[in-house]
Amino acid sequence: MSGPLLEVKGLKKSYGAIRAVGGVSFQVMPGEIFGVIGPNGSGKTTMFNSVLGQIEPDAGEIHLNGQNITGLSPLQLNQRGVGRTFQTLQVFGKMSVRDNLIVAAQEHRGTMWSRMFAPGDSGLGAKADELIDLFGIRHVADKPAGSLSYGQQKLVDIAMAFMSEPALVLLDEPCAGVNPSLVGGISTLLKQLNQQSGVGKRASSFVVIEHNMDFVMDLCHRIMVMVEGEVMAIGTPDEIRANKQVLAAYLGS
Amino acid sequence: MKKQSAIIFTSVALLALLVAPHFLKSYGVYLLTYWLVFILAAMGLNLTVGYAGQKSLGHAAFFGIGAYTVAIMMKAGFSFWLGLPAAAAICFVTGILVGFPALRVQTIYLAFATLGFNTAAWLVMRNEEQYTGGTFGINNIARPELFGLSLDGALAYYYFTLGVTIVFGLLLFGLLRSPWGKAFTALRDNPIRAESLGVDVRNYTLLSFAIGAVYAGVAGALFASLVQFIDPAPFGVGQSIMMYLMVVIGGPGYFFGPVVGAAVGVVLPEWLRFAQDWYLFVFGSAVVLLMIWLPDGLLSIPDRIRARRESREASAARAAAVTAAAANAGKGSGA
Ligand SMILES: Nc1ncnc2c1ncn2[C@@H]1O[C@H](COP(=O)(O)OP(=O)(O)O)[C@@H](O)[C@H]1O
Ligand SMILES: [Mg+2]
Fold first, then answer.
1. Per-residue model confidence as pLDDT tens digits over B7-24
2. Is the ipTM above a cut-off of 0.90?
3. Whose CA is nearest to atom 25 of ligand 1?
4. Which domains does chain A have, with CATH numbers?
5. Cβ–Cβ of A95/B192 closer than 8 Å?
C-alpha cells in the first residue's frame, strides 16, 4: 500500500582516495526504527550527512515519501520534516534548556515576518514542557544548556530533534559517552516517541546509528550492518544475530 | 526578582538621564549626547556581533553613510526628516550586501572582509569631493525642528537624541524577545545545528548585518546634526575597532552592554586627556587587562558572581551530604 518513507539508492562518497561510502542502498518504512551498526570508520556518519544534505554525495539518490530530495540543503530537509542529531553534542550553550527546545521548532511556525511579532515562546511552551517532562529534565529547564552534565546535554540534544514533530529523525550515536544507566532510559524514550502514545502526533520513523549492541538489538525493528563503506547485511535483530558473516566480521570481535 | 531589579535599575537610569543635563555645562550635555549616539551605534553592532555572532569590523562605515546621507541631503535642501529614513534605508540595503561575505567566511576572515568594506567606504568619503567635500568635509549641518520646536540648543538636541535612542532601544528589545532573538543566538552558538532545525541561516545572517547597519545609520544621522561638521576621519577603520571594543567591553549579547561600553569608549578618552601622547597606550592597556579579567565584558560581572555563589552552594551541599553519610556510617558501625 504505502511505500517506504526514506529510500536511499546507490549512495557513494569518497574523500580523495578514501572511499567512505561505496554504494549504499536501503529503505526505511513509515513508523520503523532502523538501526545502523558497523565498526568505527565504516562510513555511517558520512552516509548520514550525505542523506541529510550536510555533505554532497558523489553518486546516489535519496527519496522521501517518493519525492526525490537528493541535493536539498539541511534547511530544506528540515522544512520537509526531517530531524537529526549529530554524533557530537550540539546544543546552544548559552540559551536555557527551554529556549533550546523552543528554537528547535519555532521556525516551523508562521513566516519570518510573522515571527518578528510572535511571542517569545512561539506558542511552543506546552510542547516544550511535554518533552521536558518526558526526558526528565524539568529541574534544569531554566539553566543554560552549556552548564549541564554531559548526559543531561545529550538528552536536551535528542529532545531538540523531536520538537518540530518530524516524520523522520536520524540519530547519530545517541548513547555515545552516556553512562549505562541512562542508555536504557534513552531506549525507552525513543520507543515512546516512536509509538506516539500521545494524542494528535504523527507516526515517526527513526534511523539510529549506535555502537551499543544491546541497545540496537532491543530498540530497532531492522538493522543494517556497514563495513568499510558497504552494506554487509540488512535484517531483523534475530537475522543479524544469526548472520555468520556479520558474526565473523563484526560481532565476533 | 531579577526582572524587578532590572525594572528598578532601568527606571533609575532613565530618571538620571532626564535630570542629569540640568546639572551640567553645555560641554557636559554635548558629551552626554555624544555618548547616546554611540550607544545607538553600538546597540546595532551588539546585534550583529553579540547576538548573531558575526565578527564585523566595518560598523563605522554605516555610521559614516548615515552621517553623509543626512548631511548631503540637507545641503541639497531636503529636510532632516527625509534624510533620517533615507540614511536608515541606505544602510539597510548596504548592510545586506556586506552580509554576503559572512555566508562564506567567518571569524577573523569575516573581520578582514568587513574591514576592507570600511576602507573602501572611507575612500569614497574622502575622494568623492563633489559630494562629500573630501578631506574638507561638510560644515554647517543644521539641526532639525520637531513639531515647530527648534532642536538647535544643546539641551533640546540631547532630549531629542535620548528619545530616539530609547525608541530604538525598545524596538531592539522587542525584536530580541521575539523568536528572532532566539534565532540570532542559535546562529551565533551553532549555525550548523541551527540550520538542521530549520533556522534560515542565510536570512538571519544578512538581517543581522542589515538591522545593525540601520542602527549605525540612524546614529550617524544624529551625529552629523550634533557635531554639525563631518569629514571622513570619524568613519574609518579605527572607529570600527573602537565600536567593536565598546560592544566587547560592555558585554556582547548583553542588552545594556553598549550603554556601558559606549560610556567607557566616550568618557575614558576624556578622562585620559592628561595622558596626552600616552592616551592610546593607556587606553589599549586598560582594554587588554579588562579582556583578560572579564572576557565576556563588564556586564558579565553579576553572572559571574551568581555562578560562583551557585558552585559554592553546590560544593557546600556536597560536603554536607558527605558529612551526613559519614555520620550515618559512623552510627551504623557503632550499632
Ligand atoms: N571530512 C573528511 N575528510 C576525510 N576523510 C573523512 C572525512 N570524514 C570521514 N572521513 C573518513 O571516512 C571514513 C568513514 O568515516 P565515518 O563516516 O565518520 O565513519 P563512522 O561514522 O562509521 O565511524 C573514515 O575512514 C574517515 O576517516
Ligand atoms: Mg560516526
1. 888 888 889 889 888 888
2. yes
3. A41
4. 1-81+168-253 (3.40.50.300), 89-164 (no CATH)
5. no
